Amino acid sequence: MGVPKDGTQDEGRRKGRLFIATTNRGKLRELMMLLQGQPFCVVAPDELGIVLDYEETSDDIREVAFEKALYAYRKTGLPSLAEDTALEVDALGGLPGARAKTFFGEDIPDAERWRGLLRLLQGVPFEGRTARFRCAMAVAFSEHEVLIAEGVLDGFIATEPHGEGG
């Protein structure tokens, strides 16, 4: 990930490094793909032998991303990127929100979470299934320099699962 495939570390020495503060393998893969070709070397927690045991205590995704990036910076000494996402479904009063991953219970597979969401929306017509993903990203460059960005993607919750992952 942070080390070139040919085994040399020259690229990593020439480029700066950016630590990705996540233990979610899918999210890590996605971020690494998006950051490919950038003028820095992406570093994953397992490359440094680091365990991220940050506990999310807020429902504010900007605050979670900020705190997680700062936590990772303090732990690694590297510029650190963190992300948090909320799924807001209007028919459910904005739920599941920032707790989408644990809304239906801890360690529930994605497919089961999607089935649970569809059950809650049973009987709601398509036009009433408005929802949005809200995502916040933060990069901590130092204790006093943390950049935060937020984006929103509006859409609808389908009436049945489609594609891969729901």
Structure summarized in a few sentences:
The chain is an alpha/beta fold and about 170 residues long. It contains five helices and six strands, in the order H-E-H-E-H-H-E-E-H-E-E.
What do you see in this structure?
- This protein has 166 residues and is an alpha/beta fold.
- The chain has one domain: Maf protein.
- Helix content is 28%, strand content 28%.
- It is built from five helices and six strands.
- Strands 1, 2, 3, 4, 5 and 6 form a six-stranded mixed sheet that branches.
- A hairpin with a 2-residue loop joins strand 5 and strand 6.
Order of helices and strands: HEHEHHEEHEE
- Strand content of the residues, in percent? 25-35%
CATH-assigned fold name? Maf protein
Rough outline: elongated
